[in-house]
Amino acid sequence: MSAPLLDIRNLSIGFPAGKGEVLAVNDVNFSVAPRELVGIVGESGSGKSVTALAIIGLLPPNARVSGEIAFAGRNLVGLPQRQLRGLRGKEMGMIFQEPMTSLNPVFTVGDQIVEAVRAHEHMSLKAARDRATELLDKVGIPSPRRRLDDYPHQMSGGMRQRVMIAIALSSSPKLLIADEPTTALDVTIQAQLLDLLNGLREDFGTAIVLITHNMGVMAEIADRVVVMYCSRVVEEAGIFDLFDRPQHPYTEGLLGSTPDMGETAHRLTTIRGGMPNPADLPPGCLFAPRCDKAIAQCTTAQPPLFELGDGQKAACILAPKLQTEGAT
Amino acid sequence: MTSLSDAAAPPRFLRTRALVRRMFANRAFMLGFVLFGFICLATLLAPLITRLDPNALSIRDRFQPPSLQFPLGTDNLGRDMLSRVLYGARLSLWIGLCVIVLNAVFGVLLGALAGYYRRLDNILMRIADALMAFPAVLLAIGIAAALGPSAVTAIIALAVVYIPRTARVVRASILVVRELDYVQAARAAGATDYRILMRHILPNCMAPLIVQLSFVFAYAILSEAVLSFLGLGAPPTVPSWGILISEGRSYLREAAWLTVVPGLAIAITVLGLNLLGDGLRDVLDPRMKVEQG
């Protein structure tokens, strides 16, 4: 793997709650290489969105961050807002879950793209408009020049998400963070957008961090997947390894609860229970109370991320053993 | 676009033509527009409507009831009431206009600071609370009395009274808009605070502000009349509506038109502005719409 573009080391993010503090992200490590597409999956509240906000520097001011977020060799943790703002939009972009509300309703789509283009680069209005047209064309909006003068409400959700992508790509960022970009869209549009994101990776050389809770979306385009559970990384693996031989029972559970087109219909498995209250965590492995394979040892200590070869890592004490036995 | 799909589309006040059409389809707005428009037009065209000097004395014509020569009668010094009311409107409307301009500028400024920079919020809003704790007219009287009676003090007093209210309205809508996705998206795109405030937040807070200002206009005219009535407004040489009522009060029994006419002028203006504001609110901010039968 070449030098990582984004390298997250021991990242912990806490929020004050009552007297103490609740960790939304706990000792998270992962890295993203240039042009790589890394997916982060996990339930709601697993800390994936907070991680994304930390990368782009938009955490609420009461968040307490420790660890390191190295972006192109520069640690972003503790960097003053002024410098972070220079990075945002220029070196990294972000697209959000809700395309319907992510555009300012009182300005035309063209105005907003032009604004983004000119925010980081000095160019004439006309040149910026040409660039905006080009961007809309790139993200697959037909007759882009005419569409520039549309207001957001004149566009569908899928088109608005394309516009958001165009805005995020306006300065050819090195990193694009996509926080559930397809969740609010219907399935056919989802597939088109995923294709688009994948294609842009080639065209713009952008690395993408894709956050989703949809394993199907992951399977479609991710190179590598980071599985988060309850503020921690529980498994990290290449996409094929993850689907072929998941090592953490939680990952297995996620995969088991995803419908599979290829196989004959069977009842989808579910993961019983819910995530523990972050203010009142169980001892040992955080997943143990919901895990079918849990043994006595599981409740004594939090397992570290075991290296399992081929870049696969899992935080389960059973994982290394399973590996040697060759079981799945 | 047909009117059907217009109704379904979100409220966008920059689509001017559709907006204007919807405004004039609103009965309250229409009526308010006609009433207030009538007053404004009469004020502007005062020299054409009457050729009589509002301050010309004519002792022979004291207390003339309305007649052909004096359509609205004359006062205790024989001055023509029609021209006095028309020229008085100039001062009343001018004061109202100055008050809403000051309100718009300082209300938006303070409201934006309080709503966007949360640290200033507590300080600014407590000051606003303190000012709002006084009954509006009482506070205006206090300020006007302290500064000495003149048109300018009336404007300052009324601006001070109403700015906290406008600032509150602006702050409230900023608190809502600042949490919206497109503001977060603008932040993620590296926009500066100033840019986010000016481009993304304030333009989306205009509707409640416009509505608020139309009401402030009405209140300002009303309160100005109160101040003038109490002798704390413009000097009596310039007839404002409040002064006219104040002067006419002594002759209420003999010459009721002296108070009724300027009173009606105030009532029509305030009613017109209130209807205008109600209509604007319904059109610009349908979520706040009051159920109509």
Automatic annotation (TrEMBL), chain A:
GO annotation (BP), single: peptide transport
InterPro entries: AAA+_ATPase, ABC_Ni/Peptide_Import, ABC_transporter-like_ATP-bd, ABC_transporter-like_CS, Oligopep_ABC_C, P-loop_NTPase
Key words, A-Z: ATP-binding, Cell membrane, Membrane, Nucleotide-binding, Transport
GO molecular function, one term: ATP hydrolysis activity
Its membrane topology: Peripheral membrane protein
Classification via Gene3D superfamilies: P-loop containing nucleotide triphosphate hydrolases (3.40.50.300)
Cellular compartment(s): Cell inner membrane
Ranges for domain ABC transporter: 8-255
Pfam families with a match to the protein in the record: ABC_tran (PF00005), oligo_HPY (PF08352)
PROSITE patterns given in the database record: ABC_TRANSPORTER_1, ABC_TRANSPORTER_2
Coiled coil: none
Similarity comment: Belongs to the ABC transporter superfamily.
Name of the protein this chain belongs to: ABC transporter ATP-binding protein
Organism expressing this protein natively: Arsenicitalea aurantiaca
TrEMBL record, chain B:
Alphabetical GO biological process terms: transmembrane transport
CDD domains on file: TM_PBP2 (cd06261)
Main subcellular location of this protein, as a coarse class: membrane
GO cellular-component term (any): plasma membrane
Gene3D superfamilies per record: MetI-like
Pfam family, one: OppC_N
Family from the record: Belongs to the binding-protein-dependent transport system permease family.
Name this protein carries in UniProt: ABC transporter permease
Biological source species: Arsenicitalea aurantiaca
